[in-house]
Description:
This protein has a two-stranded antiparallel sheet with strand order 1-2. The termini are far apart. The protein has helices at residues 3-6, 24-32, 37-43, 49-61, 63-86, 91-109, and strands at 7-11, 14-17. It has a single domain, classed as Orthogonal Bundle (Arc Repressor Mutant, subunit A), CATH 1.10.10.10. The radius of gyration is 21 Å and the shape is elongated. Helix 2 packs across helix 4 (49-61) and helix 4 (49-61) packs across helix 5. The mean pLDDT is 92. It has 111 residues and is mainly α.
Amino acid sequence: xxxxxxxxxxxxxxxxxxxxxxxxxxxxxxxxxxxxxxxxxxxxxxxxxxxxxxxxxxxxxxxxxxxxxxxxxxxxxxxxxxxxxxxxxxxxxxxxxxxxxxxxxxxxxxx
Length: 111
């Protein structure tokens, strides 16, 4: 099986299923969680079983490389999450939080 038959390599860390915006990591994540191909299809109905089986087959035939790919993606997602969590909230978020706190205080006074 050739990678380019079923997948588009947008970058070394962004491989998508041809004709979709779905990354192969989405299918692989479900597979590693124990989902069957049919269950994956129920979660990602824009795919078909052929593409799901192709992704799983490619993963199994290239497990070490794909595990590295999945690790890099997970590490990058965690990095982005940590950056987001450390950033100061936008003025809109700050205002919403202030309104929620004010509402909670008001509700506390009336009880």
